[in-house]
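Query structure, 489 tokens:
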């Protein structure tokens, strides 16, 4: 629940706008102290990247674009294969640690922070920490490159205590605004914008009651130890099937499209791919309010990173630019085989390993998983992944409406399934990237646009370095339209 916009990465070029263009090469520097002290310029691994001025734009469709992909960039299609085909299984360990954590996003950072007294080592593939919660600062103005907010925790809960310990709630702005969408240029919360007949009115009322039902009986994920069969039952049907079984088939088309836009934005897939358990877990939680930090969730990642960095003067705990190739049980220990940014093979022996990385990669990393956990080994190949684009529009003037989140429907042709979306690739969600900034900037603003690609082969449309231009050409008119909705030219 640390990251409510848990974008589904594809291991190729998932979050593709606004992130650092640095490659992994050159992340490590020459070190002393032996192979267990890799040495790392800690400041360079900050989840926020300062970009200063933006130059070298290319005009496409009347919109200036920086001419490249950002985010998960692998130059010349050099993809990070997490496999240890050439590893020496008999290689001695370079070091021995109690805990190794693989994946430096919010989950990995939170694990390292909560276990900090036990001096864990944290491996991250990219050149910066944060994962889907990386960010940038444009002339001091922070904004997110991926996940934007998290949910208001229960008072006194472990999450509440963690956030207060980190001091992030003191800097947050709570968004409790109603579900807002745009249709035909009109911004509204009214699902009967085009008029509703009695059946449609009844369906809308039934849907709103269903939301409140799950607010009161919240489907927790991960599953609670007891009384979880009803959540498992939800997980056996799609979100769409469950809604239609409870409210009937008469939801207004505009409202169904708004729900679909929400699912595309939050999960990368539509309500016909999504389980009912996951759908209600998100929607019901949002009724409690959304915690928005200056710069979005990168501020949460930064809070944990800065605490860890202050403990890691020797540069042995936080390890960016590391490709973990395999994880293998060896007696009572675990061998983690990895390569540093120079390609040098290293082995870390750990008592415990936390896998905080993408699930579709885990199956390629754990040696003999089919023997240790056959059920999980059989399940992991079934995890489907899709790519996701994020575009940050850097504005020279502040936006006029004080609105945090707006789902973009455009018109009646809103694509309601993956096949339709492939033919009509729409940006579905616009977020005020500086919503929580205090005091607000009087000179600049950032509009963050979320653009899922929810069909199976979509990843192959963004692998090549020049594919950014094809999406710039598709997105230019949509970006201008979103800017107009924000009250600007």
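Result returned for the query:
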């Amino acid at each position: 629940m640390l990251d409510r916009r848990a974008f589904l990465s594809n291991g190729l070029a998932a979050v593709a706008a606004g992130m650092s263009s640095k490659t992994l090469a050159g992340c490590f520097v020459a070190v002393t102290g032996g192979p267990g002290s890799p040495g790392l310029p800690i400041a360079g691994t900050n989840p926020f990247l300062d970009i200063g001025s933006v130059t070298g734009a290319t005009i496409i469709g009347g919109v200036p674009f920086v001419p490249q992909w950002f985010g998960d960039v692998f130059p010349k299609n050099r993809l990070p294969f997490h496999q240890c085909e050439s590893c020496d299984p008999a290689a001695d360990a370079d070091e021995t640690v109690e805990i190794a954590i693989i994946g430096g996003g919010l989950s990995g950072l939170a694990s390292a922070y909560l276990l900090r007294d036990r001096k864990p080592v944290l491996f991250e593939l990219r050149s910066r920490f944060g994962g889907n919660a990386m960010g940038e600062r444009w002339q001091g103005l922070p904004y997110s490159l991926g996940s934007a907010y998290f949910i208001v925790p229960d008072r006194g809960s472990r999450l509440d205590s963690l956030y207060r310990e980190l001091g992030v709630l003191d800097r947050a702005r709570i968004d409790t605004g109603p579900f807002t969408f745009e249709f035909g240029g009109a911004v509204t919360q009214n699902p009967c914008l085009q008029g509703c007949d009695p059946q449609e009115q009844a369906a809308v009322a039934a849907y709103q009651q269903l939301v409140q039902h799950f607010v009161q009986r919240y489907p927790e994920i991960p599953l609670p130890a007891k009384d979880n069969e009803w959540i498992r039952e939800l997980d056996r049907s799609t979100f769409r099937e469950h809604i239609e079984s409870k409210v009937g088939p008469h939801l207004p088309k505009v409202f169904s499209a708004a729900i679909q836009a929400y699912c595309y934005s939050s999960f990368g897939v539509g309500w016909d791919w999504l389980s009912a358990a996951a759908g209600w877990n998100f929607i019901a939680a949002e009724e409690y309010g959304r915690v928005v930090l200056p710069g979005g969730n990168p501020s949460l990642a930064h809070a944990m990173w800065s605490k860890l960095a202050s403990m890691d003067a020797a540069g042995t705990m936080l390890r960016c630019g590391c490709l973990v190739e395999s994880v293998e049980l060896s007696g009572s220990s675990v061998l983690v085989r990895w390569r540093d940014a120079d390609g040098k093979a290293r082995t870390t022996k750990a008592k415990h390993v936390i896998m905080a990385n993408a699930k579709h990669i885990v199956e390629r990393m754990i040696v003999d998983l089919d023997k240790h956990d056959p059920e999980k080994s059989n399940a992991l190949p079934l995890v489907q992944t899709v790519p996701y684009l994020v575009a940050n529009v850097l504005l020279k003037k502040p936006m006029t409406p004080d609105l945090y989140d707006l789902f973009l429907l455009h018109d009646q042709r809103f694509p309601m399934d993956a096949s339709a979306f492939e033919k009509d690739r729409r940006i579905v969600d616009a977020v005020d990237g500086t919503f929580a900034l205090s005091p607000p900037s009087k000179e600049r603003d950032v509009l963050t646009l979320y653009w899922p690609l929810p069909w199976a082969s979509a990843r192959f449309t963004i692998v090549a370095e020049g594919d950014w231009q094809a999406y710039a050409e598709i997105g230019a008119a949509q970006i201008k339209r979103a800017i107009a909705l924000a009250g600007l030219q």
